[in-house]
Amino acid sequence: MLISSPTSVEGALEELGNENTLAVGGGTSIALMLKNRLIEPDRLVLLNKVPTLSGIDERTSATVRIGATSTLLELMHSPLVNAALPMLSFASSRVGNPRVRSVATIGGAIIHGDPRQDLPPVLLSLGATAHIVGPSGERDVPLSEFFLGFMESAAGEDELVTEVTVPRVAGQRTHYTRFTPGSEDDYPTVGVAIAMTLDSEGTVRDARIALGGVDSTAILATEAAALLVGHRPSDELIAAAGQSAAEGANPSDDQRGSESYKRAMVDVWTRRTISACLAG
Amino acid sequence: MNVKMTLNGEPFSAETPSDSLLVDVLRLNGFTGTKEGCGVGVCGACTVIVNEVPVASCIYLAALAQGQDVWTVEGLTTKDPALLDAFVEKEGMQCGICTPGQVVSAYALGIENPKASESEIREFMAGNLCRCTGYVTITESVRTYLASK
Fold this sequence. Notes:
- The complex is a heterodimer.
- By secondary structure, chain A is α+β, with helices and mostly antiparallel strands.
- Helix content of chain A is 34%, strand content 26%.
- Chain A has eleven helices and 14 strands.
- In chain A, strands 4-5-10-6-7 form a five-stranded antiparallel β-sheet.
- In chain A, α9 (222-228) runs antiparallel to α10 and α10 (235-248) packs antiparallel against α11 (259-279).
- The longest helix of chain A is centred in the last third of the chain and has 21 residues, at 259-279.
- The mean pLDDT of chain A is 96.
- Chain B has two domains: 2-74, Ubiquitin-like (UB roll); 77-147, DNA polymerase, domain 1 (Orthogonal Bundle).
- In chain B, α2 (73-79) crosses α3 (81-89), α3 crosses α6 and α4 runs parallel beside α6 (135-147).
- The termini of chain B are far apart.
- In chain B, 46% of the residues are buried.
- The mean pLDDT of chain B is 97.
- The A-B interface holds A 1-3, 5, 24, 26-28, 30-32, 34-35, 44, 46, 48-49, 71, 73, 96-100, 102-103, 184-185 and B 1, 18-19, 21, 39-42, 44, 47, 53-56, 59-61, 63-64, 66-67, 105, 108, 112, 124, 126-127.
């Protein structure tokens, strides 16, 4: 296996043009997959020496730009992320343990495409966009169109996710709940991320509900969110939204719960997370 | 590949397969203070410091450490004697297998949050597992170390 350490995005793209080549952010998932012989790449392209892939800043007053190699530790401590996107800081602080958070990157979290991880549903609910650069040019792909299947994304093998942009919405209420019946540092059985805005009367103007761990990708519970819009949600409406989210999920049996248990937990945790958002 | 880094403040280089993990490069070159426990980044026994942050060396490619500033338990306890003194004073060890990781994590907390409260200490150290369950004396050791700073 060859190792390349480019120092620019152009250099990284050139290396990614080789056959059977993988880009490495922090490599926490890639190291595990290599160890278990789940992948056998001919070449790894390390991104930790490409300075333009790091950094968090305000792209505009309405957008936060997060470089793909920003670590979860940086997301936890960035004053900008804490102020503008507190749910993202919080979710980052709940992943694994300090040794994983100081290495794992936001770019890795989305490109790896593991639906059990925390950042995919959080970024989905925040309406984030991935910026993809490849040999044929650059494009922006909303995360709602980015996750194509289990560990499959819209970014091609010869392309690179260079940054994630997240809209900054004034007065937006956000809440992320991760339900881990086992150990706290485990993947969640169900993760529910909600971003909503209310008007001064308490009527829901806009809502996005995203679920982790209950389908082959992180998913948006679009119908559940639509039920809330235009209403000051009553307990009955919140219950209907929980039910709708549970019906829209497609979980599978594993050590974190059976299909029916996970579906029931989607209902429960969607309701609780909606209530948490409404409570402020 | 040849991996070069600054290890415990000294230049270090080693010839190693390109898919090597940092823990293996360290141990095969005599830095056996770092232990491999679970091998999946969960137990904390393999904790080392890379560029001032704690890293699980069992899931960290050695290639990523190229040119970086790496510290293991051997170097840290020499650089910062208060670290070992605190663990000795509070008897923050039983069988000893998790101890190097606990010591390195305590150092990492000292960088990230030297004024950590009791709950912050527990939160930060939560991923360092002790199968002897000697957590009370371990957290006392960490508190004593932070107080020395």
